Task: structure prediction
Amino acid sequence: MKLNSVQKMMLGGAQGSTKQKAMRLLIDLGKAANSEQLVPVVSAHVSGVSPLTGGDGLIRFLKDLGNEESITTAVDTTLNAAGCDRTKFKEMDIPVKDYVEKQQIILDAYEKLGIELSLSCTPYDNLKIKGNASWAESNAVCFANTYTELRTNRESGLSAIATALCGFTPEYGLLLDENRIPNLKIMVECNLDEPVDYSILGDWIGKQIEPKWKMEYGPIPHIFGLKNLNYEDKKALTAAAANYGCPLLFIDNFTNKPTTTNYKSEICFKQSDLDQRYKELAPTNRVDLVTIGCPQASFDEIERTAKYLEDCNIPNGRLWVFTSSLNFDKAKDKGLVDKIEKAGGLILRETCPEVVHYNHKKVKHILTNSMKAEHYLKSGLNAIDTSVSKLIDCVKHASNPELLGKENKEKIMGKIKIHESTKTYQTGKIEIDGKGLQSQESWSVEGEALVTDVPITFLGFVNRITGQIEEDGHPINGETMADKILIFPKGSGSTVAPFVLLGLFYNGNGPKAIINTDLDQQTIPACSLLGIPYAHSFDDNPCQSINTGDKIKLELVNGNVKLKCLERA
Result:
């Protein structure tokens, strides 16, 4: 990889050990992606802020990072939503000891680095810049690439910090025209009337992805048949599609047309699909809390919520509206905050429904208008029963704790999505060659393999204490990666994944080594930072040629990795 004089100085340690580590991480990522150079960026956005999502791994990482004095960011950098509204912590009733203190430690550490405490998952609001960027936060990545003149890869929180410190990012992936190509054709054959319809569509698209489809930079849908698409619709669609790793959408008549296509499949979304999802997602028991704003609510969404609350009385603070400080101030000036809170709701800033630690003794069932919120609220992050309805119905449930509707007296269970796997049991000897990270000189590891050909979502679906996979329908659900050699295609879902991995490595329950078959911006940074043995780009697919339980040996010599099966399971 070509480095200019400034980049060489950083790599050599002339600007301190922290920037040296950051530059090493970026080079590791770039080399794995076959990038030829690092390019300057105009913006960075960092995820991993809440004590719930980042955990102890985040706090320890930031503590270590902040040991070096006078280090600061090289480019304008914003920060994702925090784990609470610090001004309304009492009202949020978070039952975690020292939660606010932990949150403040995280925020202080980021501020010390020169990162703006914007605390918003919608950095694209009023976006006026264009060019290359390094953004974490999956919904923001998809929105920026789809609707703005900003280009960013699906960065992890760690790689975004590295870019923020250095001011450069590897030139590869979605920064290049040749990779911004749709690989799925989606025909929408029904009318979508409001944002939650688009949210359901985005999530539905993600659920159709099959492991056999080679999608190096994730699913990139090309959507046909949409008739309307306002700002709220746009936000809802990209946020939900990002649940399953979509970094970019092409939408006929609403975005730039692709120069070419490479469809792996054509899929139709029909009225029956929309109706079925609403049935599956409808509340079937008492709703304890209603949350609006995931991603954080825009001014228009706040205004609509306030309108629906006219002549309503919400008991026990059953409605929480999440928004950014920017939109909170606008809504405050227009009297909307007072209107919502006079009706009994609570409007929160600087935080987001999916990153809050709820009081599980009181909140057992949440109703939301967001498939992004639903995806993570029901995961291991909070493990709360979650339903989805249109905004007006959410307000009705908030106003009436006993509301269920006749159609919901009989519980309708959505089928668990079984992730399709093409793995078959393998026998015989095998020895294959791959590559390591540039920053890692040599290592040798032996151990038991844990193998899947299905991507792993670390945030919410991997136990951050034990390393156990906790995702119903996943081929290795219930298995633990602790002390195993983990072999999987790549990570999916949240860009906070590296902090989950860091936490597992810190507490001794991380894998011995990691092998990816696809470029993984989520895994490489954690392995680069801590020196965890990492391998990729094998001449045969290890997800298919190695069985779970096989005893294998990995050895890195001169940048090349040899994988040998010692004993079949």
Observations:
- The chain has four domains: 5-177, 181-278, 282-408, 431-567.
